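Feature request, filed as a ticket because there's no other form

It would be nice if the structure record came with a short human-readable summary line next to the tokens. Right now we just get the raw output. Example of a typical job, pasted below so the devs can see what we mean:
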Amino acid sequence: MRIEPGNVGKTCARAFTLIELILVMTLLVIMASFMAPALANFFHGRTLNSEARQLLALTHAGQSRAVSEGMPMLLWVDVKQNSYGLQEETPAPGGDPKAEAFTLDTGLQISVKSDANTPLTAGNLPAIRFLPDGSIDENSPQTLCITDGSGGALWLIESRNRMSYDIRNSDK
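Raw output as currently delivered:
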């Protein structure tokens, strides 16, 4: 190996050419285009799951409020407005200061199924009634369903002992 007098101590650096960089970027874009639909479905499913868990948490909050305050609470569902909320059954003249209302994320729908002959209503809306002893009124809807545009659905179904609701993948 011959060392030239002007190159003592210098090493030869190798770099990528512009064509190599363009090819790598093209491959990354192609791979990302295949992954985008899968990621969209993943996030859509997470939205459905998150909304169902929020509704389930509100059932627990309604039950806890009914027991702690000694008065019935209503978890109402507005199917047309895609919203739901929690309030006292008979609020004071100034209203219920702890009332909560939520709107479903875009693309989600909520429905109510009741096996009872006379479903409870809160302002002409179906409602789950939590009694001060911690139980759920027998005329409350047994099933709530949240669906997304791709056909996915999660069900909140009343337990057999009428004390809580559970999230399930089907209405059975």
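Something like this underneath would help us a lot:
Strands lie at 73-78, 83-88, 100-103, 108-113, 127-130, 143-148, 153-158, 165-168.
The longest helix spans residues 18-69.
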